[in-house]
Amino acid sequence: MLITHDTECALSILVELLNTAPEACGSEQLPDVAALSAFVVRQEISEIDSLGPADLAAVHELRSRLREVFSAGSVERAAGLVNALVAEAGTTPRLTNHDDHGWHIHYFAPHAAVGRHLAAELGMALAFIVMAGELERLRRCEAPGCARVFVDLSRNRSRRYCDSRTCGNRLHVAAYRARQRSAEAVPATGG
Ligand SMILES: [Zn+2]
Ligand SMILES: [Zn+2]
Questions:
Q1: 190 within some domain
Q2: Cα–Cα distance for residue pair 102/98, rounded to 1 Å
Q3: Which ligand has the minimum distance to the alpha carbon of residue 145?
Q4: Residues in CB range of 60: below 8 A, 6 or more apart
Q5: What are the tens digits of pLDDT across the range 60-98?
Q6: 191 part of a folded domain
Q7: Which Pfam families did the record assign (predicted)?
Q8: What is the span of the domain harbouring residue 159?
Q9: d(C-alpha 81, C-alpha 147), whole Å
């Protein structure tokens, strides 16, 4: 798969961002500018000069548009959504080696507002996924009642659940019950 480490990092931010939405987890995890600010720090998003209510609104809108790519249904539709995002973001690729990260490419325009910054970076990460023919790796958790998204980077593309604690536990309980059922079904061989 032609997915670089930088793309993987961007995809991880993408998943974290999408899973802050009420559609994903039942309540808004980015309800105010302070929460957005904490998200920016936690995800180490660079060159963000200031944050205000307009930035919060822009990030909420971007989040819905990014989520549409996960449910695009066809490569053509996904490509159209990604193209629109990246074009509107004023993407300007440039090499940088800030903060000892080694040489990598920033797609966002220098000191762009957070909405456009994320649209450029996350949009390009999605573009690489489409280009690599890996759109099917963008998934929605299959646990009942869970709408979180994840990117399945497993070798055999077998991942079905998000890694939230709740779904992990649900999964373990289900697996435990399944093991018990199969243990009951198989007659014990002498002991
Ligand atoms: Zn960087
Ligand atoms: Zn889940």
A1: no
A2: 7
A3: 2
A4: 30
A5: 999 999 999 999 999 999 999 999 999 999 999 999 999
A6: no
A7: ABATE, zf-CGNR
A8: 5-185
A9: 21
CA-CA-CA-CA dihedral for 126, 116, 34, 46, to nearest 10: 80
How far, in Å, is the centroid of ligand 2 from the Cα of 121? 25
Q: What is the pLDDT along the chain (191 residues), one digit of tens a residue?
A: 578 889 999 999 999 999 999 999 889 999 999 999 999 999 999 999 999 999 999 999 999 999 999 999 999 999 999 999 999 999 999 999 998 889 999 999 999 999 999 999 999 999 999 999 999 999 999 988 889 999 998 888 888 899 876 676 666 666 667 777 777 765 555 44
Could you say which ligand is closest to the alpha carbon of residue 163? Answer: 2
Cα(106) to centroid of ligand 1, in Å?
6
Structure tokens at 151: 């990117």
Domain assignment present for residue 98? The answer is: yes
Residue 141 resides in a domain: yes
Residue 126 maps to which CATH number? 1.10.3300.10
Number of domains in the chain: 1
